[in-house]
Amino acid sequence: MSDCIFCKIAAGEMASEMVYQDERVVAFKDIRPVAPVHILIIPRKHIPDLTAITEEDAGLIGHLHLVAVKIARELGLADRGFRLVNNCKQEGGQVIYHLHYHLLGGRQLKNIC
Ligand code: AMP
Ligand code: ZN
């Protein structure tokens, strides 16, 4: 997707504070952090939102979760705890339509549900 900023970040065409990358997944710091740790984890593949995943993406989504735990562990959050959030479409609060998960931690997070 040529007009997608997260595709551009994944391709290295737009600046970001990258914290992890492999052949399937990229993770970078959120530009407006709401917690001491606020990292966005995205697939390189352009998937607009969570409802667009298919059976074919099951391995990719599983891998993304493993990467999230790996990053959390490296940042010392595995024992303290953290939150992995996907905002899906309008009422879920999604603003950027390239699938992404927010990894939040480093402070006590309030329950939202
Ligand atoms: P969402 O509301 O789930 O779509 O979240 C989009 C997130 O992307 C927000 O937390 C923004 O602060 C973040 N964001 C937007 N542009 C950038 C960027 N260029 N680099 C890093 N994070 C960004
Ligand atoms: Zn994209």
What does this structure look like?
It is a single chain. The chain has 113 residues and is α+β, with helices and mostly antiparallel strands. The chain has one domain: HIT family, subunit A, CATH 3.30.428. It is built from 3 helices and 5 strands; from the N terminus they run αβββαβαβ. The protein has helices spanning 5-10, 58-74, 89-92; strands at residues 18-21, 25-29, 37-43, 83-85, 101-105. The protein has a 5-stranded antiparallel sheet, covered by helices on one side. The longest helix is centred in the middle third of the chain and has 17 residues, at 58-74. The radius of gyration is 14 Å and the shape is globular. The mean pLDDT is 97.
**SSE pattern:** HEEEHEHE
Query: What's the total helix number?
Result: 3
Shape: globular
- The chain-level structural class is alpha+beta
Query: Could you estimate the helical fraction of the residues in percent?
Result: 10-25%
| Mean pLDDT, all residues | 97
Which short descriptors sum up this protein?
113 residues, alpha+beta, HIT family, subunit A, 5-stranded antiparallel sheet, 3 helices, 24% helix, 21% strand, binds adenosine monophosphate, binds zinc ion
Question: Short description, anyone?
Answer:
With 113 residues, the chain is an alpha+beta fold. The protein is 24% helix and 21% strand. The protein has one domain (5-105): HIT-like (HIT family, subunit A), CATH 3.30.428.10.
